[in-house]
C-alpha cells in the first residue's frame, strides 16, 4: 500500500485485465466529459494514478471499477494520514473484490501510521530501507541561532551560501508574504506559495521556480511534499517546524539527484519548542552532522519515547532504539 502527500495519489495497478497497456494518470481536470484521463479509463487501462478524492468520485459515479485490481500502492502514508485521508482510503479499500497485494510507503513511522497499518493491512511485514524518519545523508545540515527580529535581515546573508535555486520554508502565511516582499525589494528573483493563494497564482509561481526563471521559492509546508524540484541547492527553514517529521520532509527537497549534495540551514531561537530541539539534536547526531553548542547542552534525558509494544522507539521516527 503506497501513500502520498501534498496532493496524495493512489497508484492502482490491475494485474490480470485483458485491456490496453497504456497507463493513464488522473489529474484535477475541471469537467468529466473532456478529461483525457476519464476517457482513457473508460476504454480500460493497466495502471491508474489518482488522488483519493478524485478516485472516490469516480468510484461513486461508477466510471471505474476495482473488481480486477490486484495491486494497490499508497505512497507517503504519513502525509496522507496527516491530511485527513484515512477515512477515504478505508472506503476505497471496500471497493476491491477478491484478494489484493497492498504496499504502504512512508518516510517516517509515527505511532498513528503504525496503528493504521496494523488495522488496515493483513499481517503486514515491515521492511526498513535505512532508518525510518532519518534525514538524507546527501544533505549537510546547519542549525543557527538567530534572534527573531534579526531573521529576515540575516536571510540575505544566508542566501549567499549557495547558488540558486533556493527553497525557503516558513510556518505562517503572513511570514511567507513578508519574506517574499522583502526579497523582491532587495532585488531577489523570488516567488511565493501558500494555502491562501489561488490555484492559478500558485501554479504560476511553481512553474517559474521549476523552470529556474525564479531563483527563490518561499513557501509554507505545502511545498515540503508532493512538489518535486530538480537541483535545489539550498533549503532554508526560516522557522523550525512544530515536529521533526516535517523538518525531514523539508530538507529532503535538496540533495535529491544521484551524486549531488544539498545544504539545509535552519534558524532557531528561544521561541523554538525544546522537545522539537531535542529530536533535532538526535537527528543531527544520527546523520553525523555538526551539533551546535546550544543544542549539545540540552539534556538528552528529556527525549520522549513512544510505546511500540515490547520495545521503545524515538518520538520522531518510531524506530526501535
UniProtKB/TrEMBL annotation:
Name of one Pfam family that matches: DEAD
Alphabetized UniProt keyword annotations: ATP-binding, Helicase, Hydrolase, Nucleotide-binding
Superkingdom as given in the UniProt entry: Eukaryota
Keyword Nucleotide-binding (UniProt): yes
EC code: 3.6.4.13
Cross-referenced SUPFAM superfamilies: P-loop containing nucleoside triphosphate hydrolases (SSF52540)
Keyword Manganese applies: no
GO molecular function, one term: RNA helicase activity
Family classification: Belongs to the DEAD box helicase family.
Name assigned to this protein: RNA helicase
Organism: Phlebotomus papatasi (Sandfly)
Amino acid at each position: 500500500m503506497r501513500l502520498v502527500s501534498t496532493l496524495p495519489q493512489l497508484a492502482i495497478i490491475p494485474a490480470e485485465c485483458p485491456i490496453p497497456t497504456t497507463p493513464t494518470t488522473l489529474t484535477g481536470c475541471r469537467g468529466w466529459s473532456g478529461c483525457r484521463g476519464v476517457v482513457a479509463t473508460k476504454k480500460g487501462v493497466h495502471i491508474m494514478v489518482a488522488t483519493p478524492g478524485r478516485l472516490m468520485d469516480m468510484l461513486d459515479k461508477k466510471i471505474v471499477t476495482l473488481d480486477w485490481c490486484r495491486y494497490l500502492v499508497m505512497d507517503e502514508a504519513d502525509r496522507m494520514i496527516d491530511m485527513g485521508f484515512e477515512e477515504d482510503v478505508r472506503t476505497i479499500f471496500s471497493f476491491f473484490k477478491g484478494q489484493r497485494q497492498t504496499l504502504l510507503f512512508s518516510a517516517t513511522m509515527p505511532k498513528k501510521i503504525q496503528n493504521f497499518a496494523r488495522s488496515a493491512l493483513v499481517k503486514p511485514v515491515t521492511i526498513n530501507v535505512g532508518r525510518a524518519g532519518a534525514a538524507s545523508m546527501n544533505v549537510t545540515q546547519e542549525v543557527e541561532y538567530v534572534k527573531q527580529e534579526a531573521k529576515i535581515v540575516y536571510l540575505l546573508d544566508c542566501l549567499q551560501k549557495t547558488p540558486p535555486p533556493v527553497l525557503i520554508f516558513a510556518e505562517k502565511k503572513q511570514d511567507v508574504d513578508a519574506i517574499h516582499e522583502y526579497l523582491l525589494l532587495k532585488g531577489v528573483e523570488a516567488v511565493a506559495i501558500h494555502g491562501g493563494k489561488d490555484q492559478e497564482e500558485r501554479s504560476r509561481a511553481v512553474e517559474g521556480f521549476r523552470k529556474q526563471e525564479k531563483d527563490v521559492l518561499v513557501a509554507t509546508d505545502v511545498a515540503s511534499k508532493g512538489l518535486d524540484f530538480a537541483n535545489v541547492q539550498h533549503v532554508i527553514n526560516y522557522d523550525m517546524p512544530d515536529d521533526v517529521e516535517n523538518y525531514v520532509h523539508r530538507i529532503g527537497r535538496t540533495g535529491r539527484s544521484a551524486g549531488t549534495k544539498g545544504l539545509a540551514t535552519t534558524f532557531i531561537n528561544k521561541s523554538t519548542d525544546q522537545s522539537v530541539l531535542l529530536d533535532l539534536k538526535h537527528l543531527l547526531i544520527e546523520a553525523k552532522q555538526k551539533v551546535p553548542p546550544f543544542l549539545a547542552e540540552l539534556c538528552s534525558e528529556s527525549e520522549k519515547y513512544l510505546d511500540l509494544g515490547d520495545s521503545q522507539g524515538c518520538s520522531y521516527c518510531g524506530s526501535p532504539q
